[in-house]
Predict the 3D structure of the following.
Amino acid sequence: MDLYLDYDNHSRRRKQRRRRRNQRSRKPLFFGIFVLLVVLIAGGIYFGRRYVAYRQEQAEKARKLAEAKKTVTVMFPEGYSIDMMAKRLEEQKVFTAKEFLVAVKAIDQYENSWIKEIPVKKGMKYQLEGYLYPDTYNIYKSSEPKELIQKMLDNFERKYNEVKKGYKGKRSMQELITMASMIEREAKVEKERPKIAGVIENRLAKKMKLQIDPTVLYTTTDGLYDAKKVYYKDLKTKSPYNTYVNQGLPLGPICNPAMSAVSAAMHPTKHEYLYYRTDNTGKGTHVFTKTFNEHKSAGEKKQ
């Protein structure tokens, strides 16, 4: 009987020891599973957030790319100066005026070889004045000012080369564009342009001062032409562009003319007129006269 009890106690103790060993061996397993679950959950959260951030980043890139591909239309009327163009671009929130003018002055970045032929003179405001062709342009919203300017220069080159085919005169491109810029600002009626060109040529031949009002306004309005009239005091303004003070052509173009004005400069009407003034019709047409007395008399009749 005692032997049986001893055996039974021994067996029970052995089972208890086995159970404790099993419990101890399962603890690392449970801990490992717990750690693995924590890592998987944390990793899932981390990579989930990264994926969401990646999708948001890709969506933003796609939005910016789509925005960059959108175009904006810019229209410059004939006779606009560079300063007027800069103002319009800023008003339409395409570029700031400063950005555009900085790009205009950085002429080395443009591809047109003829730019080197434009004489650089002391007091010249913009070397490219007269050569940014006034037209309608479509550009990407992401464009830089230099890209628009290059389009304008290329447009001028194409149109000028076409008009030049019939020119047999000896005036340089700079002289022709300078004359055309004055014609553009003076002539509102297309058919009068060659006639005004003829007056300019006649006065130059006689070494008379051209006395063209827009050459004064180009200086007094800082190229914006936002003054309605020229006052007598303005005629004395010291500027290489002022044809009331200086003899001959102004230092350079005073605006960017249309090709019809350039064609008029190339093919002036031959006549003996030395003067012109607006008439009473209100249509922008002029009375052309040969002498100052006739010019004065035409002014009195207008009044």
Notes: Strands lie at 71-75, 136-140, 275-278, 286-289. The first strand starts at residue 71 and ends at 75.
